[in-house]
Amino acid sequence: MDDDIVARANMNLFYTLDAILNSSTLTEAARRASLTQPAISMALKRARAHFNDEIIVETAGRRQLTPLAQALRPRIRHALRDAQQILNFSLEFDPAVARRTVRISMPDYIEVLMLPHIVRPLRETAPYIDICLVPFDHRSVERQFEKDIDFAILPAALSDGAFGYRALYTERLALIVSSQNPFAKADRITAEQFVTSRHAALVAETDILAPRHGAVADLLLRRKVVVRTQTYTALPRMVVDNDLIVTTSARYGQYCASIMDVAPLTFPIATEEVQIALQWQPFREHEPFVQWFASLVEEAVATSI
Are 56 and 69 spatial neighbours (Cβ–Cβ below 8 Å)? Predict the structure, then answer.
């Protein structure tokens, strides 16, 4: 059989394999793919033959994906979404009548700062476009887009020049303490005081604003951390009515000070600015919807943050 014909036939596997890889049982996969149980079993058999891999194995009574299947899962989902985008692609885009869902990934503290300012103009100019926030991946922009998203908002350290890019604003590290903390009354803290105080902080791999090298990184490494959490938005409440110190985004610190009994402080030594950017898949660079939404976010941020 001609290789192109084989490739086209195997493309039909994507839909059923996507259901199999994202379901806990074959019965659930059959329901998601609108197929019978024998048909989904035959699809799994064909996938195993094509990839020369078991795809799904039973270990100690538990269903598990093989390493190949784990690698295939985000790629197949991405390929299906790309195919859908191609089928729906048009050079015509009218936000007033367009109906679609925008899927975005961003750190939780950026969500608090930015999302209300994005939603407001979106509801006014595009009432039928919805937003869905996807959990943020702290490793790289490529990992973000494995989650089938349209846009990622992230610090420059995680960005990738191969993707579409709009600079939104700059950020730098700052501190938050209780309003009753002596450091708040003095409105300053020395490097030595910082190191010898008690801190609440993020777990290391999620601290995307902290530099990995230099004097600031050294100071952060030397602090005494007594509480660790996974999210920026959990940190401010840690300092209320106690002596803990939190290192966070300067803009987020100012926001927290406006709604909580906490005070922002300048970091004890000079810190570099961090650029926050909007990114999207490079092949969508000239898509009217992408350019429209990127401009909407850029304008919303410029007038509010």
Answer: yes
